[in-house]
Amino acid sequence: MTATTPEQVDTRDMLVIHTALRREYRLAPALVRTVAPRDTTRACDVSEHLEFLNGMLHHHHSGEDRLLWPKLLERVPAEVAPTVELMEQQHHGIHDAMEQVNAAMARWREHATTADRDQLADSLDRLNARLTEHLAAEEEHILPLAARSLTPAEWGQLGEEGMAGVPKNQRALVFGMLMYEGDPQVIAEMLAHAPRLLRFVLPTLARRAYGRYARRVHGTPTP
C-alpha cells in the first residue's frame, strides 16, 4: 500500500480499482472455460461481462494517459521518464491483448464452439498476465511519485473523470465491484465528498447491484 504523509496525496483509491480489475480478469479465463459447447446464450452473457470489463480497463488507462503521465513528465522528468515509457509500452501491450480477446470473443459468441472457447480463454490468460505485470509496476513505481508530485485536486480529477465516464445505470454496479474487496476506509474516503444522501444510500445499492450481477455472471452472489 502506498505510504502517505500530510504533504502527500492519498493514492490508495487506485489500489481499490486495481484490486477489482485483478480479481475480475483473474476469474475470466476459467469463467469462459465453464461454458458448454454450443451454449450461445451463455456465451453471449459471458461476452457482455468481458466487454464490460474491457470498457472499464480502457477508460481507466485513457484517464492515466491524459491526466497522469503528462503531469509526472512535467514535474519529475528525469526520475519518471523511463517509468512512464514502460507504462505506455505496457498500455500498448494490454491494448493489443484486448484486441485479440475481442476478436476471439466475436467468433465464440456466434457459435460457441469448443475451439473458439479455448482460444478466447487462452487470450484472456495472456491479457491477465500482461495486466498483472502492469498493475504491479504501476503500484511500485508510479503511485509513490504521484503521491508527492500531484495536488489533491489533480488526483481527484482522475477519479472524478473516471466515474463520470461510467454510464449512470452502471455506476452502482461499478462501485459495488470496487467495494467487494476494497479497503473500507478508502471506500469511505472515496464517498466523503458525495452528497450526504448518496453517501448513505450508495453502499447498499452498490452491494446489491454487484451481488445480482455476480449471481448472473458467476452463478453466486459473490465471485
From TrEMBL:
It comes from the Bacteria. Residues 14-146 form the Hemerythrin-like domain. It holds the Pfam family Hemerythrin. Transmembrane segments: none annotated. PANTHER family: EXPRESSED PROTEIN, HEMERYTHRIN-LIKE DOMAIN-CONTAINING PROTEIN. This is Hemerythrin domain-containing protein. It comes from Planosporangium thailandense.
